[in-house]
Amino acid sequence: MAGGQRGEKVTIIDAKGLVLGRMASVVAKRLLNGEKIIIVNAGEAVISGDRLSIIRKAHEYLQIGHPGKGPLHPRRPDRIVKRAIRGMIPYKRPRGREALKRLRVYAGVPEELRGMSMETIPEADAGKLGGKYITVSELSRAIRG
Predict the structure, then answer these.
(1) DSSP secondary structure letter of residue 35
(2) Buried b / exposed e across 18-49, counting CB within 10 Å, b at 16+?
(3) What DSSP character marks residue 76?
(4) Which residues pair with 135 in a beta bridge?
(5) DSSP 8-state symbol, 127
(6) How far, in Å, CA of 68 to CA of 140, rounded?
(7) Which CATH number do you get for residue 63?
(8) Comparing C-alpha atoms, which of 46, 49, 24, 41 is closest to residue 113?
(9) Total domains present in the chain
(10) pTM (2 d.p.)
(11) For residues 44 and 137, is the Cβ–Cβ distance under 8 A?
(12) 8-state DSSP, 111
C-alpha cells in the first residue's frame, strides 16, 4: 500500500488477468467502505465469453443514444473499467459520488506508481475461467473504429 496525498492508505490493484465484473464488484464494495483505490493495467482485465459475441453486443450498445447528447459510451480501456465499477455504485447519491472520487483507473502503469507493491484480487482471477475470453484493450480496439 502506498501513502496518499492526505496521508490515507491507497491500494494499488493490478487488473492484469482479472475478470472485469468480479473485480469491479469487489472494488465497488471497497470504495463504498471508504478505501482509496488505484487500478493499473486496466486494458489487461478480461471479459469472459466468445470474442465475436462480446464485440457484437458492444456495437449494439454503442447504437443507443445520440452522438452529441448522450448517453456517452466509453471506448478507452480505462474508461470501460471505470464505467463497469460505476455501474455497481449508487453514483447519483452523495455516498456514491464520494466513493467514485476515491477511484483512479489507468490503462498502463504510470511512472509514479512503478515499483510500488501492487495487489491482486484472487477471487477474480481469469485463470479459473474454463472458456473463452477477450481483454478490455482488444474490445476497445474493436469498437473504436
Answers:
(1) -
(2) bbbbbbbbbbbebbbeebbbbbbbbbbbbbbe
(3) S
(4) 46
(5) G
(6) 20
(7) 3.90.1180.10
(8) 41
(9) 1
(10) 0.91
(11) yes
(12) G
